[in-house]
Amino acid sequence: MSTMPTSQHSFLANPVHRAWLVLLAATALTWYLGETGAAGTGAIIAMLLIAFVKGRLVILDFMELRHAPRLWRILLEGWMLLVGGLILLAYWLSLK
Prior knowledge:
Shape: flat
Strand content: under 5%
Oligomer: single chain
Number of strands: 0
Structural class: mainly alpha
């Protein structure tokens, strides 16, 4: 039997703490990709996917929209997809 109070049982029991750790890891990974000079389409797609995951975590957990009406989540995640898609399109067009 644990002697810790249930409110302090586990740091990872709180979804916001888990999101924060994922954000830290994703930020470290993007920093690493930049520091190592990762380039090319694969690196761009990886960084955009990481940015989308980070943005989604911020929207759902830190802006507390996880349990908000679906329309709000669709609007904000759709905005992120639109911006990411436009960045990817601009990159693709710059290759021609």
